[in-house]
Every structure is written in C-alpha cells, then in structure tokens.
Design brief:
Elements lengths: L1 H18 L12 H11 L1 H4 L14 H6 L5 H10 L12 H17 L2
Length: 113
C-alpha cells in the first residue's frame, strides 16, 4: 500500500511539472504600438527622439544600446523595471507594458529613431 501511494504521489508530481507553464507565459506577445503610447506617456520627457536628457551619451539609439549592452528586450525590461540612477523604476507599469516599451524602443532603434 505504501509503495502504491508513493508511486501515485510521484506520478502527480511529474504531471504537475509537465503541465506547468513557463514563468514568462503570463507576458503577452510584445506590442510596439502600445509600447509607443506608454513611452510617450512615461519616457519621452527624458528620451525624446531616442536621446537621453540626463546622460547624453547613453541614448536609446542602436549604437549606444549596443555599446552599453542594452540592445535586447531583456536588458531594456530589466532597466525599466528596476531603474538605475538617475532613471527611476517603472515597475508600476506592469510586465506586459514594459515588454511593449522594450519592443518599441528596439523597433525605433533599428529604424534610426
């Protein structure tokens, strides 16, 4: 009986692992159009045209993003979520909106702002 119960519990645990969703599954496919709206409402004061009002060399232009290791959605999402002086955290925007902003920034950087 104890052996059957152990096998049953093991089967339930394995089923749970197989059926669980990845951690990022809650983040929808990034929408750069929504990202543009969020960017305009929250970021444009310091980043108009892909520039950086407070730290001029650290723009959102492709060359600068690549130079500073920021030319990826993951890096931009981390920066926007956590902040880094002098930029504050924008975690209040939520994971989906931040992913949208990252998609927008990368799209604009590729196009040359």
């Amino acid at each position: 009986m104890k052996k059957i119960l152990s096998i049953l519990l093991l089967a339930v645990a394995c089923f749970g692992l197989v059926m669980s969703r990845p951690a990022l599954a809650d983040v929808a496919t990034p929408d750069p159009v929504n990202g543009g709206r969020i960017f305009t409402a929250n970021c444009v004061a310091c980043h108009q045209g892909g520039n950086n009002l407070l730290m001029a060399p650290k723009t959102l232009k492709k060359e600068a993003l690549e130079q500073y290791g920021m030319f990826s959605a993951e890096a931009i999402i981390a920066q926007v979520t956590k902040g880094k002086m002098p930029m504050p955290s924008f975690a209040r925007l939520g994971a989906n909106n931040i992913a949208d902003v990252a998609a927008y920034v990368l799209q604009k950087a590729e196009a040359g702002w």
